[in-house]
Every structure is written in C-alpha cells, then in structure tokens.
Amino acid sequence: MRLGLISTATFPVGDVTTIRYSTYCNALADAGHFVKVYVLTPNTLGINHSGKIKNVHYSYLQRQRNNNRFVRYAIGVIAMFRSLYHIKKDHLDVVLIYLTRRTDFIFYKLFSSLLDVKLVTDQTEYFVKNYLDLSESERHKVDGVFDGYDGVITISKELYDYHTSIAKGRKVFLLPMTIDPHRFEGVQESADKGYITVVFGVHNRDGLNISIKSYCKYHKLCGERNIKPWKLRLIGNIDRLPVRDDILEQIKESGVSEDILILGKQPIEVVPSLLYNSSCLLTTASTYISGGFPTKLGEYLLSGVPVVATKAGEISNFLEDGINSYLCEVDNWEDISEKLFYIHNHSFEAAKIGKSGYQLAITKFNILTYLKDLTFFLSQS
C-alpha cells in the first residue's frame, strides 16, 4: 500500500495532531508500506524541506512563512495544488486528510476522483465545535462535507457512532488515542520527584482551576499533619489560556503560590522527563465535547507514574479506579485532593497502580495493537 497523509501540522515534531498521525504513519512504514507526509504549512523546524525520517518520507509544500495575509492565503492554495502533483507523482493508493477547514475537504473531494485514489479522513472531534447545538438542517449541511470520502477514522466511540450514522456506504474505523511506546526511552531518573505535574492546553477544557483548587486542599491536608507537600508543576502556554488572568489570580490568592510552579510551554522532547520525574500526574477536565481520551493521559500512563484523573469523556471506559489509576467525579475537588494525599502517604501501593497504568498504555494504546485492522481498513476503504 502507498499512503499519503496531508496535514497542516508540522512533521516530525509538532502538536498533538503530529503525535497522533506520526504514530500510525511510523507503524505503517515500519511494516513495509510506502508512507509520505505532505505538510501544507511552512517549514518552521529548520530541517530539510523534504526527506525521510526513519521510514516515513515527508515534504513541506511551503518553504517559508509570509506575513501578508493575502499572500499567505495564495501560497496556501498553491501548496494544495502542489499536493495534487505529489499524489500523482508518488502513485498513491490512499490519501489521508488530516485537516479541519470545509474548503480543504471540498478541494480534495473534487480532485481525488480525477487522481483515482481512495480518500480517507481522520476525525478527532466534531467537524464544527458547536455541532451538537445545531438544528437538524444545519447538522445535515455539516454532515455533507464527508460525502465523497471513502473512509473515516475516529478517535472515540461517540464519534464512531456519529460517523456510522451518516456513513452512506463509507467505512468507519475506531482508532483510539495511540502513543509511541518508545516515548520514554532514554529518560533519566532524577533524585527529586517531589512534584504533582499537570499538562494543560489552551482550549480551556482541562479544568485547570479545579487542579489548583484540589492542590490547595491537598496542601492543607499535608500541613495539618506536618507532612511536606509536593510542589505543583503546570506545563502549558498559560499566556494563551482564555482564563489566564483568573488562573493567575487564583494562584496569587491561594496562599501556597510559592509551591505552584508555572513552567510554561515545554518542548515536546522535554515533557517525558518532566512527567517521569514526578510523584503524581493530574488531569481534571470537566468534559470532552466529542467523547474521547486525551493524548496527554496516554502519556501520563506510559510514564508509569500514578495518575489522578476525572471521569470526563470516555476515560472511565478505559481506566479503573484503584486498578490502573485514581479516578474522581468531574469537579469534585475534595475527592481529588484526598486522592493526591492518599498517593503521598501510600507510595508503595501508588507505584503498583502506576505500573498497572503503564501496562494498560503499552497494550490498549499501542498502535501495534490496531495496525493489522487499520491496514485492512485503509486498503479496503
């Protein structure tokens, strides 16, 4: 099979989009298939504009960024037409679209039939953020964007059910959040692991205020028993967070601000060390609009560090409280704080839970678990 993936997310290093698609691209390439990533955005990584990393080929279809809005748009359109040239030149069987704009979907739908390739898309959220609030007629218009596609890959059971209901003959494949099982290889252990670490995004659905509130209560429980509390590390771009000022004020008024460390956005290659060298990892999301299981939680588990998580989205479909994680109800900051305190005082048991989480991660969220079925899906779509 010869597969091409088209995305705006940089390769081989980027955001969670890159993590998702590079995981299965690498696995497919390692299995002997031709795989090439076409990036529609400028090359900002300082690497060659085209080449091969491990077994995956790649090509950047824009060389540098232009600050003029109209020029940038024109260059973007040219990049899309360049991708058509590469699709034909590389004799692809399947083109996988990992894009979000309606115009992108229409563009590739129009030209794929002329190029005689199968067209598949990977959907990790509803196509529009407010999809569930739309009227039936408005939803029907959104659903139509997938007409003409041969297959859809989804990340959650909720999205799988949705795409199955509007399939019109399209094949739908459920590929849960997957991780690179080698992500933590080579990470060195630190003597100081006295941290509770939280990774958050700028989409404001990680419940950072609940994480801080829970930590403050945990800190108080430690103080009442003369136990030195772990520090709280926050990893993420807080300056782009919509509730930035509220969070900073909450930290300032917490009374424990000296123990709350805002590390900011960290390079993707640095994050494994920060996670591994923690005593506990925390996520307190309240909801995931399209169900699902966040990528960061998969990395949390893969680290082998005990995890405290709220039962948001489909998390409780995969994790079990007291077996491979410590689960709490959404927004229940008192229960969360007690779980943090329990882990602090039961390190041996917590370590066993962390190891169980690791075992779950390398099986349930390992791309190799799904590779055979994914390959069949792509070849048959």
TrEMBL record:
Q: Name one Pfam family in it.
A: Glycos_transf_1
Output the Gene Ontology terms for molecular function: glycosyltransferase activity
Start and end of every Glycosyl transferase family domain?
226-358
Q: Fetch the Gene3D superfamilies from UniProt.
A: Glycogen Phosphorylase B
- Coiled coil regions, renumbered to chain: none
Annotated InterPro entries: Glyco_trans_1
Q: PANTHER family attached here?
A: GLYCOSYLTRANSFERASE
Recorded protein name is: Glycosyl transferase family 1 domain-containing protein
